[in-house]
Amino acid sequence: MAKLRENQTAAAAANQNVLCLSSANDSLRRVLSDQTVLISDLRQNNSILTSESQQLQMEKSALERQVEKLRRERTELSLTRTQRILDAYCPKTGDKEERRCNPCQRGWLLSPSNSSCYLVITTNNYYEKKTWEEAGEDCRQRNADLVEFIRGISYGSTPRRPYSYWIGLRRTSGVWKWVDGSDLTESYWIHRPYDSTDCAASVQRSSPEGWRAEECVGKNRWICEMKAV
């Protein structure tokens, strides 16, 4: 009888061990399954990251090529601009490669003070004449601005009737100012400006030199000015 109990106890213990081992195996299977899923996710993420890395590398290479292209274009533009400036101020003489430099660009005139250069636009075509704003923009495209008054300026031949040339003087909030922001301190008005005429034009006439205030939307010839070199 005692032997039977001993056998039963041993059998129960063995059965318990089997249950424990079975439970442990189930836990290990779940862990293995979780690890398998995790590894699969990691591989998928790694594949995505690899693809993204390759895409970024391609974009980086494309940007580097674009930067290099822009750098070359900037260098070429700089050389072209330098060449234009050289040709404008130091044109070649005759068929020779020699250059003769001037304080003003080709086509511009040196002011009596030798401090600035001016360009007189003398178009007779009404559609080529400009408003005050348009004239100023044309000068800025030439790296210049509308002229401040220059006494003794050369307009060319004296016409049968006087022409108006926009200059860099405008009335803002009731105050006449030059395009550089400085106030008008000395004036040469032919007639007292009307309230509706806020832009100044130099009148081409034999004598005396003078200004006329006109509506800014009017069409006139104009004069550009830049510093001499």
UniProtKB/TrEMBL annotation:
Residues 113-225 form the C-type lectin domain. It comes from the Eukaryota. SMART domains: CLECT. The keyword Coiled coil applies. The keyword Lyase does not apply. Keywords: Coiled coil. Transmembrane segments: none annotated. Residues 39-80 form a coiled coil. Pfam families: Lectin_C. This is C-type lectin domain-containing protein.
